[in-house]
Amino acid sequence: MEDATNGPAPADGPQGPWVRGRRLGIDLGKARIGVAVCDPDGLIATPVATVRRDLKTAGEDIPADIKEIAETAREFDVVEIVVGLPVTLSGEEGPAAAHTRAWVERFADHVSPTPVTLTDERMTTAVATRRLNEGGVRGKRKRSIVDQAAAVEILQHWLDRRRR
């Protein structure tokens, strides 16, 4: 499941033509946001940062998390931003997906004209946690990087599907 939330409709199929450039991957959580980036050829995703959610900013003010991630996107000169959409194992959208869509709508306005794409993120946090466990990462250190690892999983999965 993927849909562009920003920019014109793609000219070349549901995702449009491949454009060389870095992409940012985002794992939106309740307390933290994991951020990853890929190389310009879209081969490999790597972790960038964990950003604390700003749940206090209301109204027309731009939340600090959106500002920080938008700045990261500018620093890496990204051509697209890929955000994980939490759907159930059966593919249904629930409250978490609605929350993500609302955040993405606000975020997309702030990073326009850079396109923001939603992609199915089923099981990415579980896979990221398992990989960290297998790598011997435990405790507070794991908690601080699991969001980045999930963002890597989201972006890498999206890149791999695009390449096929």
TrEMBL record:
GO process annotations (BP): rRNA 5'-end processing
Any single Pfam family the record assigns to this protein: RuvX
E.C. number(s) listed in UniProt: 3.1.-.-
InterPro entries hit by this protein: RNaseH-like_sf, YqgF, YqgF/RNaseH-like_dom, YqgF/RNaseH-like_dom_sf
Compartments, record wording: Cytoplasm
Family affiliation: Belongs to the YqgF HJR family.
Protein name listed in UniProt: Putative pre-16S rRNA nuclease
Organism this protein belongs to: Glycomyces albidus
Gene: ruvX
